[in-house]
Write a structure and sequence with these properties.
Blueprint (H helix, E strand, L loop, with lengths): L4 E7 L6 H10 L6 E5 L8 H6 L11 E3 L9 H13 L7 E5 L6 H7 L9 E11 H5 L7 H10 L9 H11 L2 E5 L6 H13 L6 E4 L7 H4 L34 E9 L4 H15 L3 E7 L5 E8 L2 E9 L7 E9 L4 H9 L1
Parallel strand pairs: 1-4, 1-5, 2-3, 2-4, 5-6, 6-7
Antiparallel strand pairs: 8-12, 9-10, 9-12, 10-11
Length: 348
């Protein structure tokens, strides 16, 4: 059976920076063919046009589908499922699908829809990413313009839930595999730290809270999380239960990302090495680690992929005759990683 197409759901209120994050993703797709399903409709209604004309091979016009009949979680059967079938039944399906939800959407019903028989064998939820306006949330608002969110709500005749904005925000956070605090350039370091701590304390174990400005997240942090969230909806608690099922600001180093490569001799025991990698990740709060390794006595190359402390390994191909028998690992995290300590731990 062909592998399921990974799908990333990006949620967050109007103005949080979802479209900017997606544009950055597309401009740095590194050869991936990414299809977009756009459900957000802002005051100007320009999200789809911005993404259609981003000028990148990763987002050709035919790969962008707009759902404009209202909030996606209220139109699953009418809009979402047909759109997904269009994408997965193409002669050349996309490598990855990204869904930008309306800021009013409850993410849990959308994630549950991936269990519907029409698409359950063809797509999987790679991860749910919730984007928050760091400046607004730190000031007690859930969006830059609460009035714009309310206007969006009034304009959606098909909306069948009237969830208070505070509860909707909590639903978006509760469903997330990653919470992106955007617009950190508008916060002081203390404000940013306090907000991150607050969101971390209110989220599930294993959820990463990352900070950035202008949606500049590394693609390897955003994609390839392998969460299969549709099988874990019960853990993504909903506050709202009666939904139908059918310029001039200081820059801070902490809102940037860094990566570096660690090279070490071949490994002896893949299982033990994976366990040590998981421990290094936990100790140093590494977001993503990936790479390849030669294993003593084995002719095949070991592929290693880690998202948070979850480490997966498999042999992917024969090592070349002149290929060095070593391990090369890419470490990705927010700036400030202790490179020396991480390198020492991975090469021990």
């Amino acid at each position: 059976m062909p592998a399921k197409i990974p799908t990333t759901v990006i949620t967050g209120f109007l103005g949080s920076g979802k479209t900017t994050l997606i544009r950055h993703l597309l401009q740095n797709a590194d050869g991936r063919r990414i299809a977009l399903v756009i459900n957000e409709f802002g005051e100007l209604g320009v999200d789809g046009e911005l993404l259609k004309h981003c000028g990148d091979d990763a987002c050709a016009e035919g790969d962008v589908l707009e759902l404009s009949n209202g909030c996606i979680c209220c139109t699953v059967a009418e809009d979402f499922l047909p759109a997904m079938r269009v994408l997965v039944e193409r002669d050349k399906p996309p490598d990855h699908i990204v869904i930008e939800t309306s800021g009013l959407a409850l993410p849990q019903p959308l994630v549950r829809a991936f269990n519907w028989p029409e698409i359950s064998t063809k797509v999987t939820v790679d991860g749910v990413v919730t984007v928050v306006d760091g400046h607004a949330v730190s000031e007690g608002r859930f969006a830059h313009s609460v009035s714009a969110v309310e206007a969006q709500r009034r304009a959606d005749d098909g909306l069948d839930h009237e969830t208070p904005i505070s509860e909707l925000f909590e639903d978006q956070v509760a469903c997330a595999d990653m919470i992106v605090i955007n617009k950190t350039d508008l916060l002081s370091e203390d404000e940013s730290d306090a907000l991150a701590a607050r969101l971390e304390s209110g989220s599930r174990d294993g959820v990463h809270v990352v900070r950035t400005s202008m949606g500049a997240l590394p693609v390897d942090v955003l994609l390839g999380r392998g969460q299969a969230a549709e099988h874990d909806v019960a853990a993504r608690h909903e506050m709202h239960h009666d939904h139908h099922d059918d310029n001039g600001h200081d820059d801070h180093d902490h809102d940037e990302f860094e990566s570096f490569i660690v090279t070490r001799p071949e490994i002896e025991d893949p299982k033990a090495f994976a366990a040590s990698v998981a421990e290094v990740i936990r100790t140093h709060d590494i977001l993503r680690l990936k790479g390849f390794a030669a294993v003593t006595g084995k002719p095949m190359r070991l592929n290693l992929q880690a998202v948070g402390p979850r480490v997966e390994t498999y042999f992917d191909r024969q090592l070349g005759r002149n290929e060095p028998r070593e391990a090369r690992l890419v470490v990705i995290g927010q700036s400030g990683l202790d490179r020396a300590a991480i390198t020492a731990a991975l090469t021990a």
